[in-house]
């Protein structure tokens, strides 16, 4: 029997037309089957594991059919590409070595080889679920070893199938298919229940009064300094749309961000928790289990959507997607065609055309948001828009890029960078104006609650601490250049339009304010306080204070004795204080007489510095026990942070 089958296969090899036809038939068939499996697996991970892969993104109006079809088609094309390469190698082997008895069963050989790719894909997903925060080099080593083992096992399986098919024929092939499908379903279900077990922390959220809730839009303008806006006194930079919104709303003169970095600052906004508690750094997600304002709103039946523009706030790098029905965080310009970044990463053309960036321009964010606003259901909604444009590299499209060239004071430090930054601010203002126009066209503007703020500011060569420090960019210090941010709140019906409030407030206060405004008490996990009394024009006897911090940057600067330490700060009505965790760096400024923070008063007033340190320690925690140099950031994100100047 064995000799007859071998003779049949030798005859088939000699009959090139029959042999090649069989090869390519199996290539097409197997590619479709395995591509469909991988596509459905991708969809399963997106739905079941939003903490690992990006959250749900569909073609509007929010139907998953287009996303599922795209996943299957793209993965099929990817598998087909690999199968064609495999088929070419087989053809070459047949031409060079006719007695290629190892390939006498085309179907089992090709399908098991393609199965190797699927198993490797499953294995990679398994690692991301269970050791996602582990050391990257360790994870890479385990991945390589695991895939090599899978390849070896696949070769053994091919050999065994060829041996067993001599006795039991196609039954072995059917059993292999059954085991493959069972394996895939088991991995999906196991990962799904593991995710549910790890993230099911709170089952009941505060109940809101729907009649009191108003449609709300939160707009965060990344890296935006308040003093570059016309409504905050700038006479040169044109920001007509934000100025108009300030006239319709309430402007806060003294608002502080809780972190000088994008990811932890936004995590604090949505959880009302200080960074030292939620643990996020730029490019690393916050710890699981913290309640977000969007989870509470979603649990109460409100529609939630987000449109973000940078890798550091993508779902897997931040964890901010929790509670959002729709979280559009694709940072590739072709996302309208391919709806999922994970699929795009597999496309060779993706790398050839360099379509993967660390950010997308604001016009794409506005386009996506406008499409959603024009199709949103007639129910209360919360929408978050994030614009990254004011961040480096200050490369706005014309005419914005050079519109302030030669128009700023030439005596200012790095005036060229300032002028390009100003162009980005005006470009972003225009994109915000497009959103406001859409709201007005849909008769939503008048009855909406609109909040505009920034995650942090930007420095352009300002000098501090008795000229000992010259500050550039953001993320390394806690001066007002980066921590003092704009905050504009437009109430429904433009209540108290044109009001300006000078009280010290924090971005940490936004979430509890929104809940109280909606008729609910904030959960105990929130560390901020509601500022609804200020919005309503009521006087408060509470002392004005804001606390903020910069977690250690050991994951970026492991050898820096300063940057690898945590900073914490306090701002009250008169003074600004901050220090490093070992207190070797300590600064105190009287903001009322020294708004530029140039004269350090620590040596003149050590008792006040000691008192403010104790207040920081009470609110933010003991700084000597909070260092966490074991934080791991995706190396791709670290590379993007280098591109953005964080490692300079």
Structure description:
It is a single chain. The protein is of the alpha/beta class. The chain folds into 2 domains: 2-199, no CATH class; 216-543, Alkaline Phosphatase, subunit A, CATH 3.40.720.10. 45% of the residues lie in helices and 13% in strands. The chain has 20 helices and 14 strands. The chain has helices at 2-14, 16-48, 65-96, 106-130, 136-168, 171-199, 240-248, 262-271, 275-278, 293-299, 315-318, 341-345, 348-352, 362-375, 415-441, 480-483, 510-517, 532-535, 606-620, 635-643; strands at residues 216-221, 250-256, 303-307, 326-328, 381-387, 449-453, 459-464, 469-473, 484-490, 499-506, 545-550, 567-572, 575-580, 586-590. Helix 2 packs antiparallel against helix 3 (65-96), helix 2 (16-48) runs parallel beside helix 6 (171-199) and helix 4 packs parallel to helix 6. The termini are far apart.
Helix share, percent:
40-55%
CATH T-level fold name of the largest domain: Alkaline Phosphatase, subunit A
Major sheet strand order: 4-3-5-1-6-9-2-10
The overall pLDDT, averaged over residues, is 77
Q: CATH class of the largest domain, please?
A: Alpha Beta
Largest sheet composition: 8 strands, mixed
Quick tags:
single chain; about 650 residues; alpha/beta; Alkaline Phosphatase, subunit A; 8-stranded mixed sheet; 4-stranded antiparallel sheet; about 45% helix
Quick summary of this structure?
The protein is α/β, with parallel strands linked by helices and 648 residues long. The chain has helices spanning 2-14, 16-48, 65-96, 106-130, 136-168, 171-199, 240-248, 262-271, 275-278, 293-299, 315-318, 341-345, 348-352, 362-375, 415-441, 480-483, 510-517, 532-535, 606-620, 635-643; strands at residues 216-221, 250-256, 303-307, 326-328, 381-387, 449-453, 459-464, 469-473, 484-490, 499-506, 545-550, 567-572, 575-580, 586-590.
């Amino acid at each position: 029997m064995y000799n007859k089958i071998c003779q049949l296969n030798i005859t088939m090899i000699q009959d090139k037309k029959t042999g090649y036809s069989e090869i390519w038939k199996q290539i097409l068939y197997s590619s479709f089957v395995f591509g469909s499996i991988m596509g459905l697996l991708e969809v399963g991970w997106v739905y079941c594991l939003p903490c690992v892969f990006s959250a749900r993104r569909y073609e509007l109006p929010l139907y998953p059919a287009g996303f599922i079809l795209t996943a299957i088609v793209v993965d099929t094309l990817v598998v087909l590409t690999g199968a064609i390469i495999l088929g070419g190698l087989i053809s070459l082997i047949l031409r060079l070595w006719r007695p290629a008895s190892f390939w006498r069963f085309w179907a089992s050989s090709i399908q098991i080889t393609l199965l190797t790719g699927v198993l490797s894909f499953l294995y990679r997903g398994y690692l991301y679920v269970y050791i996602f925060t582990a050391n990257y080099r360790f994870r890479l080593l385990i991945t390589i070893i695991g895939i090599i083992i899978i390849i070896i096992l696949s070769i053994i399986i091919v050999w065994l199938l060829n041996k067993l098919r001599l006795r039991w024929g196609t039954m072995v092939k059917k059993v292999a298919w059954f085991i493959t499908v069972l394996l895939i379903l088991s991995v999906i279900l196991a990962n799904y229940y593991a995710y549910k077990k790890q993230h099911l922390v709170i089952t009941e959220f505060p109940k809101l009064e729907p009649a009191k809730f108003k449609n709300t839009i939160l707009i965060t303008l990344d890296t935006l300094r308040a003093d570059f806006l016309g409504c905050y006194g700038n006479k040169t930079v044109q920001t007509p749309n934000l100025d108009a919104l300030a006239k319709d709303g309430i402007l806060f003169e003294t608002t502080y961000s809780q972190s000088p970095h994008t990811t932890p600052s936004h995590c604090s906004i949505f959880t009302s928790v200080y960074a030292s508690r939620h643990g996020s750094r730029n490019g690393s997600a916050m710890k699981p289990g913290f309640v977000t304002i969007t989870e509470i709103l979603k649990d109460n039946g409100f529609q939630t959507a987000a449109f973000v523009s940078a890798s550091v706030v993508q779902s897997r790098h931040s964890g901010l997607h929790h509670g959002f029905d729709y979280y559009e965080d694709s940072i590739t310009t072709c996302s309208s065609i391919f709806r999922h970044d994970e699929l795009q990463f597999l496309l060779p053309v993706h790398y050839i055309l360099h379509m993967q960036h660390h950010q997308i321009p604001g016009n794409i964010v506005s386009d996506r948001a406008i499409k959603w606003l024009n199709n949103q259901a007639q129910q209360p909604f919360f929408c978050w828009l994030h614009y990254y444009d004011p961040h480096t590299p200050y490369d706005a499209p014309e005419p914005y890029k050079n519109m302030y060239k030669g128009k700023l004071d030439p005596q200012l430090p790095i005036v060229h960078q300032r002028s390009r930054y100003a162009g980005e601010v005006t470009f972003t203002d225009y994109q915000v104006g497009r959103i406001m126009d859409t709201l007005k066209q849909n008769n939503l503007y008048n009855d909406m609650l609109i909040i505009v703020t920034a995650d942090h500011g930007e420095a352009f060569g300002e000098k501090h601490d008795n000229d000992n420090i010259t500050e550039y960019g953001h993320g390394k210090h806690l001066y007002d250049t980066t921590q003092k941010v704009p905050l504009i709140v437009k109430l429904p019906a433009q209540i108290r339009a044109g009001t300006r409030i000078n009280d010290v407030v924090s971005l940490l206060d936004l979430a509890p304010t929104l809940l109280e405004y909606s008729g609910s008490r904030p959960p105990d996990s929130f560390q901020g306080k509601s500022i609804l009394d200020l919005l309503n024009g009521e006087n408060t006897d509470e002392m004005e204070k804001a606390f903020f911090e910069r977690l250690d940057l050991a994951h970026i600067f492991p050898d820096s004795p300063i940057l690898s330490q945590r900073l914490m700060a306090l701002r009250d009505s008169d003074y600004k204080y901050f220090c490093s965790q070992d207190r070797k760096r300590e600064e105190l400024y009287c903001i009322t007489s020294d708004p530029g923070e140039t004269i350090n008063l620590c040596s003149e007033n050590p008792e006040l510095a000691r008192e403010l340190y104790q207040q920081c320690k009470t609110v933010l925690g003991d700084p000597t026990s909070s260092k966490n140099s074991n934080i791991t950031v995706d190396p791709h994100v670290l590379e993007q942070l280098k591109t953005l100047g964080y490692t300079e």
